[in-house]
Amino acid sequence: MASMVFSHCSGLVPRNFPPVPWNGLAWVLVVLWETKSVKMLLIHSPRSLAVLRHQLASKKCYMSSTAMSRFDPDANLPYEKLTKNLEVVRKRLNRPLTLSEKILYSHLDEPQSQEIKRGVSYLRLRPDRVAMQDATAQMAMLQFISSGLPRVAVPSTIHCDHLIEAKTGGVEDLARAKDTNKEVYNFLATAAQKYGVGFWKPGSGIIHQIILENYAFPGLVMIGTDSHTPNGGGLGGLCIGVGGADAVDVMADIPWELKCPNVIGVKLTGRLSGWTSAKDVILKVAGILTVKGGTGAIVEYTGPGVESISCTGMATICNMGAEIGATTSVFPYGGRMKKYLEATGRKDIANLADKYASLLTPDSGAQYDRVVEINLDELEPHVNGPFTPDLAHPISKLGENARKAGWPLDIKVGLIGSCTNSSYEDMGRVASIAREAMDHGLKSKIEFDVTPGSEQIRATIERDGIAQTLREFGGTVLANACGPCIGQWARSDVKKGEKNTIVSSYNRNFTGRNDANPATHAFVTSPELVAALALAGTLDFDPRTQKLKTPSGKEFLLSEPNGDELPSRGFDPGEDTYAAPRKDGSAVQVDVSPSSNRLQLLEPFDAWNGKDLQDLFVLIKIQGKCTTDHISAAGPWLKFRGHLDNISNNMFIGAINIENGQANKLKNQMTGDYATVPEVARYYKSKGQGWVAIGDDNYGEGSSREHAALEPRHLGARAIIVKSFARIHETNLKKQGLLPLTFADPLDYDKISPTDKVSIKGLTTLTPGKPLTAVIKKADGKELKIQLNHSLNEQQIQWFKAGSALNHMKNQLK
Predict the structure, then answer these.
(1) 642: which residues sit within 8 A by CB, 6+ positions away?
(2) Of residues 508, 513, 718, 790, which has the active-site annotation?
(3) Which cofactors go with this protein (predicted)?
């Protein structure tokens, strides 16, 4: 073990640094003259050692006395460094910059030399932190363990929110989850302790709310292993959803790669008022841009209307930006963010952000690739759905549209909360509706479930009487967790296959998403409209114009909802649910039992054999929408997220087979028998037969779950061929050594049959931008050729050749 001492940001770096030969690991003692402190850094690769030396020698280690969070006292706000980086970029580009560009480009690994072209170049970035929820953290930490690295290089956290099933109520459901998931929680807790990761215990709340309350700050770049990570844009950060392999890169001190996004500007004028809420902004945007309209772009909100939206309202808008395929969404720093930072105990961050306001707002004259304008004065409350979050209905048209389409008008369940809409303001506005209704002798006509976003929100609404009001209204307060939003819902009021309608304030409403019932018509809207519709019990109700009838027969019109933006008595933090990592976790034991059905250590995927791919079977040709829920279902399958082989038994079970119009039933081309998709894939794998899957547009939209890439790779896939990909999923496929290919002519999708064999030619000369050729061999022996495109860059081609990005990283560290 080598060791060395040098000064920090002082320019006094010895010329012969490092003074000892490299032998694998080195403790570096860094003297922080500016703060009169000493810090020990564990350097685990020659490259990271060289980077540290370069940073010190060029005085790039900028210090601030303000920590990024109270949980990360050794990690300070990077504003000075970001400003210096941005000065370099400004000189190069010589044009006004959007807010998105300022934040993103100031986090470049090499701002002086990296190519910067929107929609073209790949950026190599240095994110400030990593966040992982428990369902995806299992695979992320298993991959990190496989890397052999001793400790994460950036502040990172794990949040236990996905594995708690909603069944009876918060207290009971949480206790049951802790028992059921004991093995997984223990694995995550000990892995966090060993590798330097903060751990938020079950019951602490939903990852995105915890990030907003504690970690997000204006100018932040964070990656999170959940597609709704963009929630942090409500506090002016670029928070981007990724797969676990991307998180491993950042935790391993490897620059994170992102294709330089375009920037869509949404200009807001007017002011929010009445029944119109922040949720209606993103519901309207989703209707305009559709589920793929934001792909490859950051959505940046601007204009005078911004200041009429609370910080948590901005977070709601950014959160659901994931549903339009956006890389992320962001708001400029302003007074509403400052108020929220102060209310959550971060006045020092707000004060520093004030000083760097020019970094945290767009330049005058900045150019956007597309501009959408919304007048908030004219914006009508919206309800979107069913089955897709971009099917937008103004509330005045909802009943009419539902009748025309034959959707069930009667609502069975109303649900509020989740990561999208569980702020104090949201709960207060719903409580105002509930109180007025109860004053008139009315309660919810339907089951009404409430999910607090965090322990802090739960404790505060309990203290202030809001939770009790919602219970008296007929509500059940569930655990501080994702619950029904992600399918963790033991629903019992309808049978599977029974046509019914539910309305929620969630963000996603794909088929079977909430309750695994494909006949459930799920609509998403604001918490206020959920409450109003729960009083009416039908989709055919507009609370602005239609009256409710009291038990005595008297009619009344609901008042416009109201609620405090922030609690006047401050937030009640509730129970302490955070476990800080050990300073030295080397002695911590992380156990994974070989007999476990929940956890499984990873084996490396096989490297490319250097040849073209010959005679691959078409495992499945998918008809219509194929989200990550179709590829790797959530709900009851969440318990297997740490066991690749077991969770692979859900691969493609929700996808519709074009051959027969059915899900999870296809023909084994080797035996002629019909079986489930995983069974056929396992059979092909056992015979050494590779395969491809064929898909339609926006393949892999939805969740960031990398299991939708890991499972096909594990069961023998070599390529996924589609009309177009969703951003996160395409990256996840590349990370696992699969070829994500698109038809040069989308009509070629129709030329492939389930009985075809596919050979992919041109791999021996695979280079960025150069198309590949697919030779399609028909059952009668005839052949046809089609062109396939790819977006692999030089580094991603190395991932493919090594078998995965993790394999490539391990090769580099040898």
Answers:
(1) 138, 139, 142, 184, 187, 598, 599, 600
(2) 508
(3) [4Fe-4S] cluster
Residue 636: the pLDDT is 86
**pLDDT given for residue 48 in this prediction:** 52
Q: Across the chain, which distance is largest between two alpha carbons, in Å?
A: 89
Instruction: For residue 408, say if its preceding peptide bond is cis, omega within 30 degrees of 0.
Output: no
The sheet with strand 370-375 has its strands ordered as 328-330, 297-302, 262-269, 370-375
Catalytic residue among 161, 249, 697, 748: 161
382 pLDDT higher than 70: yes
Length of the chain: 814
Find out whether 79 and 64 touch, Cβ atoms under 8 Å: yes
Residue among 511, 513, 455, 516 nearest 481 (CA): 455
Question: Strand pairing partners for 67?
Answer: 76
- Give DSSP secondary structure letters for 36-77: TEEEEEEE-SHHHHHHHHHHHHTT-----SSBSSTT-TTSB-
Phi first, then psi, for residue 276 (nearest 5°) are -80, 130
Q: Which residues pair with 587 in a beta bridge?
A: none
**Residue 465 structure tokens:** 């009487």
Ramachandran quadrant class, 144 (left: phi over 0; alpha: psi -120 to 50; beta: rest): alpha
Distance of CA 796 to the CA centre of its chain: 22
Percent of the chain with pLDDT over 70: 92
What average pLDDT score do residues 448-457 get? 97
Q: Which of 159, 393, 705, 790 is catalytic?
A: 705
703 a catalytic residue: yes
Predicted pLDDT at 49: 53
CA dist 75 and 78 (Å) reads: 9
Report angle CA 803, 645, 130 to the nearest 5 degrees. 65
**Minimum mean pLDDT among 40-54, 421-435, 750-764: which range?**
40-54
In the structure encoding, which two tokens stand for residue 807, read together? 């394999």
Q: Which candidate in 432, 505, 703, 724 is catalytic?
A: 703
Minimal CA–CA distance to 12: which of 35, 27, 38, 32?
32
What are the contacts of 174-183 at 24+ separation with CB within 8 A? 174/202, 174/203, 174/479, 174/480, 174/481, 177/202, 177/479, 177/481, 178/202, 180/639, 181/598, 181/639, 183/593, 183/596, 183/598, 183/599
Q: What H or E segment, with its residue span, contains residue 227?
A: none
Query: What are φ and ψ of residue 456, in 5° steps?
Result: -65, -45
Tens digit of each residue's pLDDT (9 = 90 or more) over 550-590: 999 999 999 999 999 999 999 999 999 999 999 999 999 99
Instruction: Give the CA distances from residue 493 to residues 473, 489, 499, 503, 544, in Å, rounded to whole numbers and listed in that order.
Output: 19, 11, 12, 15, 30
**With DSSP H G I counted as helix, E B as strand and the rest as coil, what are the percentages for the chain, rounded to 5?**
35, 20, 45
Rama region for 711: left / alpha / beta (φ>0; ψ in -120 to 50; rest): alpha
Catalytic residue among 107, 126, 129, 162: 162
pLDDT at position 702 is 86
- Rounded CA separation 805/735 (Å): 5
258 neighbors 362 (Cβ within 8 angstroms) = no
124 has catalytic annotation: no
Query: Are 98 and 362 in contact, with CB atoms under 8 Å apart?
Result: yes
Q: Which helix (H) or strand (E) holds 725?
A: none
pLDDT digits (tens, 9 = 90+) for 468-484: 999 999 999 999 999 99
Q: For residue range 666-687, list pLDDT tens digits in order.
A: 999 999 999 999 999 999 999 9
718 catalytic? Reply is: no
Q: Which of 128, 134, 173, 226 is catalytic?
A: 226
Position of tokens 């209905």? 393
Task: Check if 329 is active-site.
Answer: no
Beta strands in 584-677 (DSSP E): 613-621, 656-657, 662-663, 666-667, 674-675
